[in-house]
Fold each of these.
Amino acid sequence: MEQKKSEPVDLAKLRSIWDEIEAGCGGPDSVAARFRKVKLMTNGPITDERLSSVWALDRCVGLDLSETQITDASAPFLLSLPKLERPDISKTNITPVGVAELQSSRPELHVFHESIPK
């Protein structure tokens, strides 16, 4: 299978499409839109500094940040996401201390990280 060259993502256009889909589903709190999982689309690495600039994270239920460059410094930002239920922070630079901070601050989170026994 031939792999296509990745082109830059137009985030403004993507956001417009996403907002139209949400509106058609009954809004961001509807059941259809509530169970989405977001895999960030970017040409560069996701770092602590870039994480907060990604749109619509405040409405995410599941967030796949695996294999990104985020660290424990991103824990407060993740805790600020009101609808977040299932963050995947496996294979990141978040330490067991950062994981413990997430779990103790929001015990309802189902955190995926290699330091948590399966």
Amino acid sequence: MKSTLLLGLLLIPLGALAHPGRTASDGCHYCRTNCDYWGVPHNQRHCHYYEDPKPEDLKYSKVIKKYSDDETSFVTLLHDSTYMTFEQPQQKKVDSH
């Protein structure tokens, strides 16, 4: 019972990162909705990564869009003809009082 509860609590943050549409096993899909939000042309295949971009990703790619709010931040890069979105949840600030 405790292990099931713990597993459930660990999975909650992953749901917050879920992409609204279906993606292939490689994390990629064709953008059909909210394309402007991600900075990707309509019907363009792009990939989602839930980590920070690696230095080589930044070095050899063009930054298409950066976005940040209270819940999430992401950057969409274009490398050759591949759009890549790197998304991270925002760290919750802990009130020290």
